[in-house]
Amino acid sequence: MKMNEEQVETRTQSRRITQIGNSLGLTLSSEMLNYLKVSKGDDVQVEMRKDELVIKKIKAVEYPVGISEDFFDVLNETVEMYDATLKELKDR
Fold first, then answer.
1. Following DSSP, what letter does each residue of 21-78 receive, concatenated?
2. Which pLDDT score is estimated for 6?
3. How far apart are CA 7 and CA 5, in angstroms?
4. What mean pLDDT comes out for the span 20-34?
5. CATH no., domain 5-90
6. Which contiguous run of DSSP H or E holds residue 90?
7. Cα separation of 88 and 92, whole Å?
8. Which of 19, 52, 22, 33 is nearest to 44 (CA)?
9. Which of 7, 14, 53, 82 is packed most tightly, with the most Cβ within 10 A?
10. Element (H, E) at 17
11. Residue 1 — very low, low, confident or very high, per pLDDT cuts 50/70/90?
12. Is 19 strand, coil or helix?
């Protein structure tokens, strides 16, 4: 059964925006980190919705056998390098 937004448990804490190096940042309590099941070094997705920020854990992707973790990085670099050529081939 899929839950709608009213059925999802809501937890609220007040946090203060703080200076982190040359940037502004937000710290999360241990309770929040444990609730999201995230720890230092994990990637999260931050979504802006009107006057809200929604933070979600990014689920790790399992690559098929024979595909290395840097496959998509190398693929993106290659596509960027040959972008003009690939576009010309498409238009032939």
1. TTEEEE---HHHHHHHT--TT--EEEEEETTEEEEEEPPPPPPPTT--TTHHHHHHHH
2. 52
3. 5
4. 92
5. 2.10.260.10
6. helix 83-90
7. 7
8. 33
9. 82
10. strand 17-20
11. very low
12. strand
Using a pLDDT cut of 90, give the percent of the chain over it.
30
The identity of residue 90, as a single letter, is K
Please report, as a single letter, which amino acid is at residue 17. I
pLDDT in tens, 34-65: 988 899 988 899 999 999 988 998 887 788 88
* CA–centroid distance for 81 within its chain: 25
* pLDDT at res. 3: 47
What are 87's two structure tokens?
């576009």
What CA–CA distance (Å, rounded) separates 73 from 41? 19
CB 15 within 8 A of CB 27: yes
Name the token pair of 20: 């982190």
